Amino acid sequence: MRKMKLNVYFLLVALPVVLASALTPTRQGKTCTISPLGGGQDDTDQVLDAISKCGKGGHTVLLPGDYIITRKMTWDLQDATVDIWGYLDFQPDIQYWLNANNTYRVVFVQSQASWFVLTGSDFTVDAHNSGGIKGNGQLWWEYYTSHVKADGDGRPISLTVYQAKRAAIRGFRIESPPFWSNCVAESSDITYDGMFVNATNTNSTFFGKNIVPNTDGINTFRSNNINLFNWDITCGDDCLAIKGNSTNIHASNYTCRGGNGVAFGSLGQYVDLPDYVENVLLEYFTMTRISHDAQPNMGSGVYFKTWTGVSVGLPPTGGGGGTGQVKNVVCRDFSLNLVDRPVHVYQTNGGNSSELQSSLQFADLSFSNWYGTADTNRVIDIECSPNAPCPDIAFKDFNIHLVPSNLTARYTCINVVSEAGIPGPCNATT
Ligand SMILES: *[C@@H]1O[C@H](CO)[C@@H](O)[C@H](O)[C@H]1NC(C)=O
Ligand SMILES: *[C@@H]1O[C@H](CO)[C@@H](O)[C@H](O)[C@H]1NC(C)=O
Ligand SMILES: *[C@@H]1O[C@H](CO)[C@@H](O)[C@H](O)[C@H]1NC(C)=O
Ligand SMILES: *[C@@H]1O[C@H](CO)[C@@H](O)[C@H](O)[C@H]1NC(C)=O
Ligand SMILES: *[C@@H]1O[C@H](CO)[C@@H](O)[C@H](O)[C@H]1NC(C)=O
Ligand SMILES: *[C@@H]1O[C@H](CO)[C@@H](O)[C@H](O)[C@H]1NC(C)=O
Ligand SMILES: *[C@@H]1O[C@H](CO)[C@@H](O)[C@H](O)[C@H]1NC(C)=O
């Protein structure tokens, strides 16, 4: 028992530290240290100055306090360390940010906008669990209770890691993101160790409604070797969304409070760009329903979704018809609290059943040591496309209790080639 504990300790705590310290640059050149100007003054210039002086081969320190940020920023870091003890406070001038000239469009998928981009190589950004980003999302969320929102409409991603290599983001907090809190795109060998996100409406007019959709914890896209360790996400959408061409993704010790759960997708949105997702390990996850006033949804443990096999409209809002494959996904040690659909696969996003079905395939998915509760009877619902039936779906030690306990669990397997370990008969009807 003791030995076992030590091993788990090594995997969860020691190994990430070993990996992350390997990423810490050894060369320490100049140091630039700044404090907030205060009095409502704009800090954007002094932050960018510090990064341009010390962001290559140096060390930048942002002392505690709120840094007022009024325009988009890219930090191009090479062989550098940044310590953030305070918050980058992105001012909520909604119309300013929605003007496409005032954000970056580096995230190709769904043409999403970014107000803050980290790029470069061999760097560490450490916010020491005491700083990060204030997104001032409350005003944005309320604005969108009476305006139409759509993918690619310009709502900014809070922290974008783009075309970065060998980097670590540590102890980082994102308070009230207007939209996705994180995205890692076109990057490799990135470790996030300690990420806290809280997208919670505080206006009582909207208690019990999810006015914080799209506040995803992170979207991964066109990236390889991404570690997501020690995350704590309160949001109204996917706490982790794995999009096209994400490979070798390892997430461990990840708490999702409310929202939709972990998503693979949506995939197959781009008819001309196949999506490949391979080698994903998700372990030690907790999905927990929170107060209904704060966030009414707790959708899934893990769900997988593709567009249909036809392209209807164009991205960012329409799409479909894209091909590809998701394979070798391990989801183990999941604790659920009152989740609606623990495991769900569907291939009809953005379409209807009369359309050509998707040919993007899900293969080799395993779910082991799942425990806790679901609050509907749709415990396992796997609805694969007839054009891409799912092989090698495996369950082991899957013990989800239903609340109320007089519900009878339903298991659905449609177009599943081979499955093992589902705790009851898996029917081919919904
Ligand atoms: C964006 O910038 C371009 C070039 O300066 C300008 O022509 C265009 O009007 C601007 N767009 C908006 C929405 O302000
Ligand atoms: C998130 O923010 C809400 C509103 O401020 C707060 O009540 C809640 O405790 C926060 N969640 C966490 C996990 O800190
Ligand atoms: C809550 O939202 C309502 C409706 O948009 C608005 O009228 C009210 O001022 C908001 N309350 C606070 C405290 O901001
Ligand atoms: C899991 O992550 C939380 C932060 O979300 C951290 O406080 C806790 O120490 C981590 N647990 C382990 C075993 O590392
Ligand atoms: C994914 O990678 C493949 C090459 O392996 C490429 O053909 C495809 O266009 C990429 N898809 C996306 C969405 O970038
Ligand atoms: C289903 O999709 C087809 C093809 O895109 C479309 O013509 C039809 O109107 C759709 N039907 C419904 C009920 O949405
Ligand atoms: C199941 O339990 C719930 C709450 O305990 C109760 O309201 C409901 O009537 C029960 N349903 C059946 C079919 O017994």
From TrEMBL:
Family under the similarity heading: Belongs to the glycosyl hydrolase 28 family.
The keyword Glycoprotein is assigned to this record: yes
GO biological process annotation, one example: cell wall organization
Protein name, UniProt field: galacturonan 1,4-alpha-galacturonidase
Catalytic reactions on record: [(1->4)-alpha-D-galacturonosyl](n) + H2O = alpha-D-galacturonate + [(1->4)-alpha-D-galacturonosyl](n-1)
Organism classification: Eukaryota, Fungi, Dikarya, Basidiomycota, Agaricomycotina
Gene Ontology terms for molecular function: galacturan 1,4-alpha-galacturonidase activity; polygalacturonase activity
UniProt KW keywords: Carbohydrate metabolism, Cell wall biogenesis/degradation, Disulfide bond, Glycoprotein, Glycosidase, Hydrolase, Polysaccharide degradation, Secreted, Signal
UniProt signal peptide: 1-22
Reported function: Specific in hydrolyzing the terminal glycosidic bond of polygalacturonic acid and oligogalacturonates.
Native species: Calocera cornea HHB12733
Top-level class of the enzyme under EC nomenclature: hydrolase
